[in-house]
Amino acid sequence: xxxxxxxxxxxxxxxxxxxxxxxxxxxxxxxxxxxxxxxxxxxxxxxxxxxxxxxxxxxxxxxxxxxxxxxxxxxxxxxxxxxxxxxxxxxxxxxxxxxxxxxxxxxxxxxxxxxxxxxxxxxxxxxxxxxxxxxxxxxxxxxxxxxxxxxxxxxxxxxxxxxxxxxxxxxxxxxxxxxxxxxxxxxxxxxxxxxxxxxxxxxxxxxxxxxxxxxxxxxxxxxxxxxxxxxxxxxxxxxxxxxxxxxxxxxxxxx
Amino acid sequence: xxxxxxxxxxxxxxxxxxxxxxxxxxxxxxxxxxxxxxxxxxxxxxxxxxxxxxxxxxxxxxxxxxxxxxxxxxxxxxxxxxxxxxxxxxxxxxxxxxxxxxxxxxxxxxxxxxxxxxxxxxxxxxxxxxxxxxxxxxxxxxxxxxxxxxxxxxxxxxxxxxxxxxxxxxxxxxxxxxxxxxxxxxxxxxxxxxxxxxxxxxxxxxxxxxxxxxxxxxxxxxxxxxxxxxxxxxxxxxxxxxxxxxxxxxxxxxxxxxxxxxxxxxxxxxxxxxxxxxxxxxxxxxxxxxxxxxxxxxxxx
Lengths: 255, 301
Known about the structure:
Helix content of chain B: over 70%
Shape of chain A: globular
Structural class of chain B: mainly alpha
Number of strands of chain B: 2
Distance between the termini of chain A: 34 Å
Oligomer: heterodimer
Number of strands of chain A: 12
Order of helices and strands of chain B: HHHHHHEEHHHHHHH
Radius of gyration of chain A: 18 Å
Strand order of the largest sheet of chain A: 8-9-10-3-11-12
Number of helices of chain A: 9
Strand content of chain A: 25-35%
Helix content of chain A: 25-40%
């Protein structure tokens, strides 16, 4: 484990008076796989959306690869980035959503080439080559010309992972990637994620798949009420949690 | 239990016959009779003067009028699409002043009748005899005589565009609102610049919802251009009016106009179907013809 890729300091976020994140401190090392578990409404997804600046934190700072997300450093102060520069920052962070959010009007392959071509300026031919390679890797080499609607949920989510990887991100964020899937389709998605972890991708995974967390995560974070209640090596947190709240949650989920 | 299972076996053995609908023929008869009456009136009533209709259908003045009508419809539609989209984006933007101004625009130009607007712009000179470009309240760079600048065509294009774009702004706004929020999230997370995300991801999906009402608006607009005859602009309607003012063949010439409006609408509708299919690609509802024509089956029984 080397220098941290993601660092969050004192991140707070609320919606209309209700606090969702109550001062989160977090750092994720390069190549580390962190799974975030916790009851719904605990702020897991909001934390993830703050990490790549899909949402602005009310206070606190998040850096990815040393750059403050959504801000530009000027000598002794930070200035909020304009929308174009903020978008540019996000190109380095891949995100996979619970509901896949593939672009339904584009073919699978075009889903993979759209952002590399238009956000990074990758030549079309190269983006297509890389896109086909990634589809091959997630086991969908023959579905490039199909529209997303024609794929099963598990296939759509694998395309979504490939789409994020097409940007060659430094970090991958997963927001409950298997929660919207039929049970028999969960494993094909987890397998792709497991391979990715094995290849050394830095990953933050919000999930309800405790078994996956136990097996793949270097570290498990348990969140409740907008705060990190407990964190540590996957085995420790899941098999012998120190906090009663963690224990209560785990007995409910695993049972 | 055993008894009901036996009954089930009996039922399963029965053949299924079509239900006989005693009155199914009635609407057919009514429609056929009405159609026959219509055709007979068209053929036997000599006052339709089909000969005159045929003579003027492709006359130079009428064809020129069609050109004006189509040109004006196209120009106004394009301008209104642009202006309407801008107003819709202002409406949806977070900015309170922007969204409020857009609301004001829609309210004003949707409320004032098209005809009133045409007359108003045509008579703009009564309000502002001269129009100039320059620094507000400061020196003027160029000045025009309003009556010269606002020709009937100009008045028509301005009036129709403002009216149309107020409606289109609402159509575009509802279309953009119909796109799933996750699409915006995905585009943002991939780092697509906001303008690119709008143009490549949001708008194409919004178009699926926008196109059907857009087709309606376009046909409305085509017909609304006939209002410009009141400011003496030689569109299709005004051209036939000029002709029947000379030869008093009022009805045949109005029929010439009607036929052309019908033809143009058919073409526009075909175009709309094509555009709908284009923007519907990748969607389950792309081709509405895949819905089984159930009503037709029932009717034949």
